# Entry
Amino acid sequence: MAKAHTNQEVIQKMERYCSYQDRCHQEVIQKMRAMAVDQAQSDVIIVHLIEYGFLNEERFACSFARGKHRIKNWGKTRIISELRARNISQINIATALKELTPEEYDQNFHDLSERVWNKIRESNMQKKKKKFYDYLFRKGYENQLIYDKITELEKK
# Structure
């Protein structure tokens, strides 16, 4: 049997949870479900978190996009799909993608692709290109960007 929490206890826990790192609504709702908070209480707490700036989907989307791109080298398509999976609105996704400057995006893609191309030890050029493409595609980079890079690297 889950322990019943008072409204104030849950609010304090959720404030700490949201202060530690930006969260989306879905993560906060899941956390409250795990704490066995009922729907009505959950709605009141979410309104409180939004009012006091603990919960902000736009801020979450922007920091998520920046972090995943800079730290994990994710491309735009992967970032978009991950944000959609978290039920982030299209407007907030568009705002988040503006956080990625074209120069930084291109530089990260270039550095990652050079590193991956040199790391793949495959004598068969077709297999090497396939492994290269698959890796960058999983990272969320656009098809045309990958194909152009393959063409460029092949000439070296």
User: Anything to note?
Assistant: Residues 57-97 form one domain. Residues 102-119 form the longest helix (18 residues).
